[in-house]
Amino acid sequence: xxRVCSRLVVRPATxxxxxxxxxxxxxxxGNQKRDIQVSTVVxxxxxxxxxxxxxxxxxxxxxxxxxxxxxxxxxDQTRKPLGLNVFLGSYALAPWPVHSQSLLDVGxxxxxxxxxxxxxxxxxxxxxxxDGMIAQAKARLGPDVNLVQGSAxxxxxxxxxxxxISINQVVHHFPPDNNFAFLARxxxxxxRVLMPGGIFVINTSTPEQQRDAFWWVELFDHSEAVICSRFxxxxxxxxxxxxxGFQVNDDSVCVPLHRSLMASDKxxxxxxxxxxxxxxxxxxxxxxxxxxxxEIPQVMQKINxxxxxxxxxxxxLRKEQQRKSMGQATFVTAIKQ
Length: 337
Ligand SMILES: C[S@@+](CC[C@H](N)C(=O)[O-])C[C@H]1O[C@@H](n2cnc3c(N)ncnc32)[C@H](O)[C@@H]1O
Fold this sequence. Notes:
13 strands, binds S-adenosylmethionine, eight-stranded mixed β-sheet
């Protein structure tokens, strides 16, 4: 049954177990070349949470594997916004001074990115799906920031109501099926609510970055392929941006090589032993996927073994070389035509 209320469409629960299909994509890293299995596994019933309490605009979307309502309290202990130079430089390309622009952060989480933007824009808004995350954002940002609960693919805003939009490390939570159709819808929504000439900055990771540049993902024997398959390849991001009416050019793609997605002082604070701590695991959703696959105990065993055998430094040296050669995040700056 389809219930339609204004622009809001409530869909029936999708089938709980779908067939796994795999495609093979070549992933290249410097002189390294490996095959990545890109899986379109979605909707596994054991990773699909019950639909949270329904609020206006909150019926679709949200993460199907990361329990942000629970992890929201720990999230800020390890994370720190990155690429602020990329965001601010990108918004300065628009025809309006940055201080007069209205900025919407889609999937704003606990509001740390918006906090760094306070005082720099004419107005700030955040859109967030999770109850726990938006509660943290409200407490952090206070009444001057307009925070709205809803889903990225159905933005509860008027056409052409923002000068600037950001989306930080959110798109891998979207269902990847049908060539990332949810992402395509989200980009169309961003184009709709953005003024012509407005700038949209996407901060995401490529499947290759996710696989190779985060030291722990290599230890995830069973969940690695599924985790990576949630991240849209860069060519898909660019294709869907074009399809939504955004312009991208050779300057649009930017990869910071040295900053980790986590706060620099937390990422390797205790070497790989960090991965034994729940608070650390709560700082990156890939651990939640590994947990859904029941492989956290084996991962912890591997970490303990490496430390006990004195092999952790060598492992980390290799992983740090990889991280600093490819970066953990990719930024795309798109212009609404
Ligand atoms: C990795 S966190 C990033 C949070 C924040 N952008 C940051 O960089 O700290 C992903 C966020 O996306 C939110 N999210 C996932 N799917 C969403 C959707 N369809 N619409 C809005 N937010 C969504 C999650 O609830 C979570 O807060």
